[in-house]
Records
---
Amino acid sequence: MKMLLTTIKSENHASELELRYLYSIVADAPFTTAMKMYDELTLDLEIFDAIVRGQYNIVYFHIDENNERRIRTIAEMVKKAMPSSVIIAGGIQVSFDSKNFMAHNPCIDYLIRGEGETVLFNFLRTLITYEFDFANIAGLVYRDEDAIIVNPYDTFPALEDLPFPYDKTEIYDTGEVYYETIRGTADRSIYAQHYPDARVRSLSLNRVCTELRYFLVKRVGKIVFLDTYFNYNIERAYRIFEYIINNDNGITSFEMNIDGDKIDDETIRLLSEAREGLFTFNIDVASTNAETLAASGLRENIYQLMYNINRLMQSAKVDIKLSVTAGLPLETEQLFARSFNKVYGLAEGNAVSIKSLRVKRGALLREEAGKYGYIYCSETPYEVIATAMMPAIELIEIKSLSKVVRAFSGNEFKLSIPRLMTDTSMKPYEFFRKLSEYIFDNNLTSKLLSVESKYRIIYAFAVSLYEEINDSLKLQIFAETLHQDLENNLSSDAVRKFERRGWELETW
């Protein structure tokens, strides 16, 4: 018997780690087991061809909100090509409303709900022993003639009982690895997905340090923690930070999702001892509007969070990535703009991003969608189309603006964009909205992938703004500031090449 565990990589990196956990559980089973994670750019037909060529008896697809539609298509083709193969699906995306998913996807023979390690192990055991005792496998969804049977969730295992997910697979690419020290979630927002038992379960500090040591010896480029939130326990987080700082190999960096409310003075003092670039913290502010935060199930007092972020940026050597979310309950475009302006001002040159709200399966928001007038996509990834307070056109404009913010947020324009905002008396949201409109109106979206092109876009946009206020002197000073940003971020050879081509849009 041959089995394949597979998924398509996406921005939801949890799928890659979860697949490794599953492989570590079944790798020693008395049959051939392979694991394959396909790149997002791989065509569906190429994935289908590879699976069929492998002649697998069992194919397990790990599904998330970003790859679900593609995997459904591939699974259907595989079933048609190999009717006798057993097709299994799993992942948090299909762990809710599982019966409906199975009903609409007849190519799926079995579905695993919740955390799948124990469920998959028990399922394979019943196949190997020919018992086929599906009714007694908690967490399994299966077909019984024309009926779809949904068994209750399995009891979630203690995280300490699971094997190290990289034990059975060698790390060949030392660029970036994904890791977790907790399961369950400290995030109680109404738009977060929650299993019935959402209690936080954690690895022991001793095991965390041992496994981090493995990565450090391998000299991986970056370890991305998928915990939500890494610092749910302040003292535990402090000890892990301390271990990382004391064992820094000078190469590996660490990225964590942080609860900004739980940053204390002791942690800030410790982080001030870290190497520059050792830590990156993702902090989701969501909104600064108290009513919106309350409706979203978040803490209403934003001031402690803002204070903590400011202290962290002033005193600790940590890269900060801040985010706000568009489409939250009770938030108008004006209120969102106010939130964005506050967060952008707080960032002081650190990266800022705008998230699009999704009404996910298993989230309380789906049950309360009517209460807030939500209209959302019926297919994954279930992005919000409109709310009672924000029509579709405003959300579309914010999504367009978010791409521009992502392209122009950070150190590449650390000096020039703040000067341009000051000279034109524009707040951040207004500035990026106008820049977004300029890029869209001039068909420049495809140019955002090039750093050099972005400098030329900002220059051309600035020329149009200074012409409006009729101030050529300020334009000249701005051009010098922009050139300084250019020199700070490009090599001297790249700067000389840039200057030979010039600043005008017509030259490229």
---
Amino acid sequence: MNQLKLLCVLTMLALVSACASTGSFEDAGDGYVTKSGGQIWVNRFGECWGHSGRTADSSHPACGGTAPSMAPEPTEQTGYFWPDDQDRDGVVDAKDGCPFTPDGIKVDSNGCALDDDGDGVPNYLDACPGTPAGTVVNTDGCTRKIVSLSGVNFAFDSATLTSEAKSILDNAAQTINSRSDASITVEGHTDSNGPDDYNLGLSERRANSVKSYLESKGVSASISAVGRGESDPVSSNDTRAGRAENRRVDVLAK
């Protein structure tokens, strides 16, 4: 009787062993593959497990050697991360000479806003693009005016300074000398009334009249005079007030 029991036990063990070494593997979900009969489990790390612990089954490719150690699950990173190009101008921060350029501004290879006229004021802030090289400009990129004689500051149709214009130029002379400007330019302008050639000549005579007066007041800076005629209006010539603004002489720092 005992021999019969022993034979039964050995038979059952043989059947269990056969189930563990034969059959096909099926996906059991969550990264596990189960062998038919439920005897072998292969997890996503290549480890093969049976009822008695981790085992190896040469019939499955993942069970032919030592399984890699289990790596921790990757965790999602949260919070603020400093970008490589914080102003998003296409130049990485490590090479960006101007790392806080406003969005949408065109930059050079150093990441700085373009300044086509080289006056130190970038294009997007420059109200007077195309300023001649070497011109002294204000923060808006426009030529720095020391004084502007606008309106009726000359006798009608002449280059003779009025008393009002002389008073303004007296103050301008003090300002110029206090700033020690190396050189200044006097520009004469007219409105659009009259022939172009005549207006150009009139503007030149008025510019030279201002130059002479400043020199008589002891201005030590080098002064050049130029006439612009009606070519550079600051207001509309269609109105009386606009024409008065255009009839002017500007004293500009160079």
---
Amino acid sequence: MFTKILIANRGEIAIRVMRTCREMGIQTVAIYSEADKNAMHVRYADEAYCVGGPASADSYLRMDKIVELCKQTGAQAVHPGYGFLSENAKFANLLKDNGIVLIGPTAAAMEVMGSKIASKQAVKEFGVPLVPGIDEAIKDTDAALQVAKEVGFPVLVKASAGGGGKGMRVVEREEDFLSSLTMAQNEARSAFGDDSVFIEKYVGSPRHIEFQIMADSFGNVCHLFERECSIQRRHQKLVEEAPSAVLTESLRNKMGEAAVNVARACNYTGAGTVEFLLGDGESFYFLEMNTRLQVEHPVTEMITGIDLVKEQIQVAYGMPLSFEQNDLAINGHAIELRICAEDPANQFLPNVGTVETYKIPQGPGVRVDDCMESGMEIPIYYDNMLAKLVVWGETREAAIARMRRAISEYKITGIETTLMFGDFVMQHPAFLEGKFDTHFIQHHFTGKELDAQPLPKAIAEVLAVAAVHWYEIAGNNGQALTMDAAQSSTASVESPSNWHLTRRNFRE
């Protein structure tokens, strides 16, 4: 087994990988930027080295520095986490050329699945369902328009490279097609350096269902069931759960088999995620494959009992999977809420600053993957996800109740976060009934709902007492009670729904 692994990442995922390494008796090497010199992952690792300035391009994306450090420290392998270099075929080849193992798939698999066009062409041969459209880059605009007419409007123009909603345009009418095509190509060129786009039928109200797969170098491929990831903003997920509330056992088997075939289509090894759009009835379509560990992998770990990072490391070392498909079963229900430094009441705009108070929930069935502590300043240079709150329950209803309890115990002040949005989701009838799709926020959330929430009784009572107390103190001087003063008086109060405290001045 490897004796030392370099983790080419930061934040919660770096710590999460290091924890498994520690359990396996493997030493860890951390890298960090100048902005992260005091970060938790730096202190957690056995060794840590600065690789450059705050910007990702000057630090976490420095392939040469990472290779140099592997040689310097004796690290035999690199775990890339997610983001940064995790799906970079050039990096995979560079490591291979220097005799260093990438804990991930081959560069060839990354290249096939990193291109939405190439991936569609590859999986088509394995009978994986595809959204109707064209599976090659658009070269002739007139021909593209003809395809769009044949598919039927609305259509989706999508960039072949990258993701996150960039280079993507929904075209409702024929007269808007050419201008939308041009805009998608320009955005794709700017974001990914590749203006290749293709066309597919726009599935109006889909659910986003993804399957976790694991594969070894001996030809064994298994799926570890699905995750429901339909609650998103800007095409990025906020709430994930496993299993989905709507999949029948028959549909689960069909989609699982398709996910395994996607992995076989590119001779995949390691952990990966196959994403599908689920339409009306039992119609589903291949969307893409992420050739890395996913942010939401903990919900799969919670319902299967499998440590996916451990499996990644063992497979990369040349060992077979520790399980077969028949060994796997769904146990209970798990939900994950991404805790991001952004303001849900203000169109989820990023929010940076210093974390004043940080206290995580505890108790049965609660897991927090984080990199946070009180007094920590949130860097502006990286993704604003700070933590992941994950809960498990015997049933979906139990998991939802546990998530609400955990949210009420999670205390973060000094910055705005998505905690209260999570509480809103857990109470919404559409979520409770499992009747939602990728347009959940568009249909059900404006941000004003959070302002409309009444203050918890405990806080309201304390504010009333504080108001009287302040009036008695300041009344003779004719001073008015300020909300800031009232907030100061209640700063240490425990309440059953603490997220209201994270709204500065109680949304005054």
